[in-house]
Design a protein that fits this description.
Structural class of chain A: mainly alpha
CATH class of the largest domain in chain A: Mainly Alpha
Low-confidence stretches of chain B: 1-8, 10-19
Helix content of chain A: over 70%
Number of helices of chain B: 9
Strand content of chain B: 15-25%
CATH superfamily of the largest domain in chain A: MetI-like
Number of helices of chain A: 13
Strand order of the largest sheet of chain A: 1-2
Helix content of chain B: 25-40%
Largest interface: A-B, 49 and 56 residues
Largest sheet of chain B: 6 strands, mixed
Shape of chain A: flat
Strand content of chain A: under 5%
Order of helices and strands of chain B: HEEEHEEEHHHHEHEHEEH
Oligomer: heterodimer
Radius of gyration of chain A: 27 Å
CATH topology of chain B: Rossmann fold
CATH topology of the largest domain in chain A: MetI-like fold
Number of domains of chain B: 1
Number of strands of chain A: 2
Low-confidence stretches of chain A: 1-24, 29-37
Structural class of chain B: alpha/beta
Order of helices and strands of chain A: HHHEEHHHHHHHHHH
Number of domains of chain A: 2
Mean pLDDT of chain A: 85
CATH superfamily of chain B: P-loop containing nucleotide triphosphate hydrolases
Mean pLDDT of chain B: 89
Number of strands of chain B: 10
Strand order of the largest sheet of chain B: 6-7-8-3-9-10
Distance between the termini of chain A: 15 Å
Bound molecules: adenosine-5'-diphosphate, magnesium ion
Chain lengths: 313, 283
């Protein structure tokens, strides 16, 4: 890439048909002009501090530090409310102290059974999410490319999409042969709709001029899909997958609370039944962590396919 | 001139130029194109006839909205004429095809493909072997002076560079006809002039038929063997002028007496038509 960003030198190849760059024609993004400080005398202390601050605000460390301070304040408030058993509209009397939650967490880190809960949940997510990703991209593509397809499928999407995962549980249990299947089904449903909707929008937005260009270059319908429409829709598809991943986690939790003997949702609900309050919060936090990590993983895996986008500044 | 020949020879060696000489004969036969249906029918092109010889450089000139793009689209095969027919080398046009290369006004490179990948899109979908594609990419990158940008993405290039890639991409497919829809319309005057000169050089090396749409009188005269002037509502041909200015042409030509004379002729044709349209409207 370094090479491409260098300013172009005058063309010196062997052919007459070679086209030299027009005067003043420079590649975009080819290095910023150096910042020339036109100042008399040494800069004042105030200016130096202001510049240092301006630089600091841009850094990653800044976000990290402020984020940590915010978390520390939150933890402090939690400690304060729980320790004093504040009961003013919201009751903190039964909320375990941060220390107790941390102790419970370190206990579970040593415990094999805790990992089985996590593993079971992750496997359910993997199954439900993967099926949703494949089916969602297919349905979204059909809806985005064919008016007939869109007219046929849209009513289902519109009616089913607003139904929350919990509302599906009774029917899922009645329909599917095992609890496992019904939980995976609910997880699948959670991820499906964001993927379908985003894929459809992405496919619809594929520029017609690119489709025409591909046709005039001799591409078949399949090649046009694979090399033009799909890549054009990919940024939207990735967004749909990331959102779908988040939704599939809270659908999963709903499913696991109602049925099953394993899973992080079952763990959380079971802790409530057993009056083991610190474990409730451990379960919640681990769910949050898994959700965040899996969503980031989706975006991270898609990165190499979207590297062309970062250049488009 | 010797180097141009060697360049063409090299192309022939690659097997990518399959003798376009003598091919690229376009016939537009009584073409009418309307959009919409019922009472909302709108005629964009009306009863148009054109016969374009192989290797000819024809400019279609007219104000915006007069149906130039629509007429070009019917040759490209994007729109079907409501009546009449378009024939390229005696074969009726039924849809877009690789023998008719297209260059659009802007933003038509595939943003997710590198410059080299964009250029070999045609040969690659045609199933040419990898080594041949690489050779074609190298040749055409060199032709447009963008070898250094082989692995860059389109967004990293200026408008003029992107348009050169667009031309290279169309030519890499060795078409017999090159269709261009206001390809330099979005460029600044300086860059546009450079692009016009290099397009003429490329055209003379390839000897293919070019149909070039523009609303710029100077551009049309500078480039064309022949200028087809269209007028609006409904779009139809009102004049067909021969341009006999000597080639190769350079930008100094624009101040010559012959150039001025042609310019006057073009403006007169357009003016007479505008007056007629104006009179019609105010009736
Ligand atoms: N797909 C379309 N549907 C409806 N009307 C169209 C379509 N394409 C072009 N037109 C109409 O046809 C006329 C000619 O358009 P166009 O060929 O783009 O003109 P030009 O290229 O000369 O500016 C315009 O009035 C335009 O609104
Ligand atoms: Mg147009």
């Amino acid at each position: 890439m370094q090479d491409a960003l260098k300013p172009q030198v005058a063309y010196a190849g062997p052919t007459l048909v070679a086209v030299p760059p027009a005067p003043g024609e420079t590649p975009r993004g080819g290095g910023r002009p150096p910042v020339v400080e036109d100042r008399e005398g040494p800069p004042s202390v105030g200016v130096v501090v202001a510049q240092a601050m301006a630089g600091w605000f841009q850094t990653r460390a800044y976000g990290l530090v402020v984020g940590c301070i915010g978390l520390a304040i939150g933890l402090g408030l939690w400690q304060l409310m729980s320790a004093n058993k504040v009961n003013f509209f919201i009751n903190f009397a039964n909320v375990p102290l941060p220390g107790a939650v941390f102790a419970a967490f370190t206990d579970h880190v040593m415990d094999r059974e805790f990992y089985i809960h996590i593993e079971v949940s992750v496997l359910r997510i993997a199954a439900g999410f993967c099926i949703a990703a494949v089916l969602g991209v297919l349905l979204g593509t059909v809806m985005g490319r064919s008016r007939f397809g869109a007219a046929l499928i849209a009513p289902y999407i519109e009616i089913l999409r607003p139904i929350p995962a919990v509302a599906w549980i009774p029917l899922a249990i009645l329909m599917w042969p095992t609890d496992e299947a019904s939980i995976v089904f609910i997880t699948f449903l959670g991820a499906l709709f964001p993927v379908v909707i985003n894929t459809m929008h992405g496919v619809e937005q594929a520029p017609e001029v690119l489709v025409r260009a591909a046709k005039s270059l001799g591409a078949s319908p399949l090649q046009i899909f694979a090399q033009v429409i799909f890549p054009a829709a990919l940024p939207n598809i990735v967004t749909g997958l990331a959102v779908g991943m988040g939704v599939s986690w809270f659908s999963l939790l709903a499913g696991e609370i109602i049925s099953g003997q394993y899973g992080i949702g079952y763990f959380t609900w079971n802790a409530y039944s057993l009056v083991n309050y610190p474990d409730i919060i451990v379960g919640m936090l681990v769910t949050g962590l898994l959700g965040t990590v899996s969503t980031s993983l989706v975006r991270l895996l898609a990165q190499p396919l979207l590297k062309w986008q970062r250049k488009a500044r | 001139m010797k180097e141009v020949v060697s360049f063409t020879e090299r192309l022939a060696g690659l097997g990518s130029q399959r003798g376009s000489v003598g091919r690229g004969h376009i016939r537009v036969d009584g073409v009418t194109i309307s959009f919409g249906s019922g009472r909302k029918t709108h005629q964009a092109v009306m009863e148009t006839n054109l016969d374009i010889r192989p290797g000819e450089f024809v400019c279609i000139l007219g104000p915006s909205g007069c149906g130039k793009s629509t007429l070009l689209s019917s040759i490209a095969g994007y729109v079907r004429p409501s009546t009449g027919e378009v024939l390229v080398d005696d074969a009726p046009v039924r849809g877009p095809g690789p023998e008719r290369g297209m260059v659009f006004q802007q933003y038509s490179l595939f943003p997710w493909k590198t410059i080299a990948e964009n250029i070999v899109f045609g040969p690659k979908v045609a199933g040419r072997p990898k080594a041949e594609c690489a050779a074609i990419a190298a040749t055409f990158l060199e032709m447009v002076g963008l070898t250094k940008f082989a692995n860059a993405y389109p967004a990293e290039l200026s408008g003029g560079m992107q348009q050169r890639v667009g031309i290279a991409r169309a030519l890499a497919n060795s078409p017999s006809v090159l269709l261009m829809d206001e390809p330099f319309g979005a460029l600044d005057a300086q860059t546009r002039l450079m692009m016009q000169e290099s397009l003429l050089e490329i055209w003379s090396a390839f000897g293919i038929t070019v149909v070039f749409v523009t609303h710029d009188v100077d551009e049309a005269i500078f480039l064309a063997d022949r200028i087809v002037i269209m007028s609006a509502s409904p779009g139809s041909v009102i004049a067909d002028l021969k341009v006999t200015l000597p080639r190769p042409r350079s930008s100094e030509l624009a101040t010559s007496e012959a150039f001025m004379g042609l310019k006057r002729a073009c403006h007169e044709a357009i003016r007479a038509e505008s007056l007629r349209a104006f009179a019609q409207q105010s009736q």
